[in-house]
Design goal:
By secondary structure, the chain is mainly α. It contains 18 helices and 2 strands. The chain has helices at 7-12, 14-32, 39-58, 76-93, 105-123, 128-147, 154-183, 200-216, 225-232, 235-258, 266-288, 294-313, 318-344, 361-364, 366-380, 386-400, 404-428, 443-461, and strands spanning 65-67, 72-74. A two-stranded antiparallel sheet has the order 1-2.
């Protein structure tokens, strides 16, 4: 079957193409003038390319187009998820201004940009092949990024991520093969046929596909890799991974499970997902309680936060999708902001990842402590932050669609998380002990933390959903 491609098809991928070309430009600039180009030139090129990609992306908002024969979809949801990926790029790239060896700077930034391209492809994927293409582009670059550090544990984290993620991808790919066997097509739209419910290959394919998705989202019981990989990976990479990966996979999950499966059998097919989401809310928050490393704590927090987002999607309502998008956007600012504060306190050994170094921060660096307090309060879901409004919207959606038990688990998980976040805040404003700062002021990280803190508060009063 031939596909007649038009300018609209190529324009659909222009934001992705610009970001990919920016990665090449960063490498070329580094090769052409290695001894003269400081790290800030590579960072500036990456930021400029990301802004250009974002400008092209905004032109697609409000449009609807099925590009490349349905392989890539342009709609409001895909644009918003791609925008979150670009936000993750910006929030992570600036951290390299404070952390990381200049020797590997260009290579790391190029890999991060190409990994973001994979997440953006996943955000608009309209077929099983496009999903796999985007996932591999996202993951292969991340495997390398996790090991691009001289810190102890970085190689171990990269190897662990490679082995476990490859296993999960095998489940995902096998599920795709079964779905292709059941439908005879790789298009997600082919999954909506009600007659597929009589085919055991379809049910098994959906189950295996969900296992792969659950691993990528670090949902319980496929979450054990996340704390170790987050801890071992370089701080900017962990910040990027914590947002961009989730954005791409959540977009796939929404398009696959909510918009493609037969509506008549949706409840039976999706029930395991909601159960896993409820367990993740509790397990993630309980896991935070014993952590002494910020990156491990945020890894467990991310497990719970994804559970909250899935709770919003329960019931497959437009209200729930809006709540999920709003909360995940707010979570992106919270998470990136917390990593920016950690970068402010870090040297090459990433001292800002140790929670012990936050003792007395409110008296040494009041603004950094205030910003971290805003982020932690938002993750806990307390006012006046977007995390509070986001959880209210999720509760409203859960109750309206009949998933009251998910709303109840959200409340229980939130109550548990208050202790984990509260002890960090208490330590920052305690005079009992005062840690030392590892390095002087880092302007890019400070700007990033400031923007994220303002966004977390402003989104509370100007939400883009109702």
């Amino acid at each position: 079957m031939s596909i007649n491609l038009t300018a609209a098809d190529w324009n659909a991928l222009m934001p992705v193409a610009v970001l990919g070309c920016t990665g090449l430009l960063v490498l070329i600039a580094d090769l052409a003038a290695r001894q003269y180009v400081p790290r800030y030139v590579a960072i500036a090129l990456s930021i400029a390319g990301t802004f250009v990609s974002g400008a092209l992306l905004t032109q697609q908002y409000g449009t609807q187009h099925s590009a490349f024969g349905g392989g890539f979809i342009v709609d409001d949801a895909s644009v918003l998820f791609q925008a979150i990926v670009l936000l993750a790029v910006l929030g992570s790239v600036v951290l390299y201004g404070a952390i990381g060896s200049a020797r590997h700077m260009a290579g790391a930034l190029a890999l991060m940009l190409w990994s973001a391209c994979g997440a953006m492809v996943m955000a608009g994927a309209g077929s099983l092949m496009t999903i796999f293409l985007g996932l591999e582009l996202l993951s292969l670059a991340l495997y390398t990024l996790c090991g691009m550090s001289d810190r102890a544990g970085a190689r171990e984290a990269a190897l662990k991520y490679l082995i476990l993620s490859s296993t999960a991808t095998g489940f995902l790919l096998y599920g795709m093969a079964l779905l292709f066997g059941a439908t005879g097509s790789v298009a997600l739209s082919a999954l909506s046929n009600p007659a597929l419910a009589a085919n055991p290959l379809f049910w098994l394919g959906v189950g295996l596909f969900f296992v792969g998705i659950a691993f990528k989202l670090s949902l319980v019981p496929f979450h054990t890799w996340a704390p170790d990989v987050y801890e071992g990976a370089p701080l900017p990479v962990t910040a990027f991974m914590s947002v961009a990966t989730k954005a791409g996979v959540l977009a796939v999950l929404a398009r696959f499970f909510l918009w493609s499966l037969p509506a008549q059998h949706g409840s039976a097919l999706l029930l395991p997902m909601w159960i896993v989401a409820g367990i993740s809310m509790i397990a993630g928050n309980v896991g935070m309680l014993a952590q002494i490393d910020l990156k491990r704590m945020l890894a467990y927090s991310g497990i719970a936060q994804v559970g909250y987002v899935l709770a919003a999607l329960a019931g497959a309502s437009s209200q729930g999708l809006n709540a999920a998008l709003y909360y995940f956007t707010a979570y992106s600012f919270m998470n990136l902001g917390a990593f920016a504060v950690a970068a402010l306190l870090s040297g090459n050994r990433e001292e800002g990842a140790q929670l012990a170094n936050y003792a007395g921060l409110g008296y040494r660096r009041p603004w950094a402590a205030f910003a971290m307090t805003v982020f932690l309060l938002a993750m806990a879901g307390l006012p006046p932050t977007a995390g509070f409004l986001g959880k209210i919207l999720i509760l409203r959606s859960s109750v309206a669609t009949g998933y009251v038990w998910l709303g109840a688990l959200l409340i229980v998980g939130t109550a548990i998380s208050l202790y984990a976040y509260g002890r960090v805040i208490r330590s920052m404003y305690s005079r009992e002990q005062t840690a030392r700062d590892a390095k002087p002021f880092a302007p890019l990280a400070a700007i990033s933390a400031t923007i994220c803190a303002v966004a977390v508060i402003v989104l509370t009063f100007f939400p883009f959903t109702r």
